[in-house]
Amino acid sequence: MKSQVKQHFGERYKYLTADNAKEAWDLLQELEREGNTVSIIISDWSMPGMNGDEFLRKVHKTYPQIEKVIITGFADQKSIEDLNLEIGPISCLKKPWDEDELISTISHAMPD
């Protein structure tokens, strides 16, 4: 995913990845403390330690302005709709994601 995004957007943005929700949360807080603006978070639904829906709820409570995207291969539509109602708007991409859909989703979420 990172290579697909970087190939399309080049050096316009900084791309950071985390292996789990705790690492992502720590990275997010560090970036915000340093004065960096995080525009979008893309989270897998299934992650070690904390599922992506829980993680995005946590992000939303502290950073509601961040655009949120969840990627899933198995979440049911009701769970996705519930998450969207609670913290929406949220984009959802199904695995395997379509590269054009990924790029379009990010393009719409990023500030001009």
TrEMBL record:
Signal sequence extent: none
One Pfam family recorded for the sequence: Response_reg
Record keywords: Phosphoprotein
GO biological process, one term: phosphorelay signal transduction system
Domain Response regulatory: 1-110
4-aspartylphosphate PTM positions: D44
PROSITE patterns reported in the protein's UniProt record: RESPONSE_REGULATORY
Protein name: Response regulator
Gene source species: Leptospira soteropolitanensis
